[in-house]
What does this fold into?
Amino acid sequence: MVISSCSTNKIALKTGIEEINFGNGGGFTGKVKTYKLTADCKLFEKETELKKVESKKTLKLFNQAKELKDLKFNEPENIYSFIEIKTKEKINRIVWAYNSTTVDKKVIELYNELLTTTK
It folds into this structure.
């Protein structure tokens, strides 16, 4: 039996990241879908807790986010996706258009990994 402990302090201290918000929006309705993954491994859709994410997976995602915490990219179009990386100092919001070819591939990789946690 493997017990996976997820401590906010452990992951936040290792990565410097406190939480990651991500989602997409726009289109005809302008509806925005937002998720939040916290350093204590909790996944939320808006304010509703969906589930706990394995600590190993959360640490991996937070380490990926750490590489992007200072990336500046804001090119939304009608339909867009976003990642917000929250540290103690700031919140960095990365926004790109659906099917963008100009956003860094690491952003797309992180976004796709984050989306797998919602399934």
Remarks:
- The domain at 8-117 is CATH 3.30.1560.10 (Mago nashi protein).
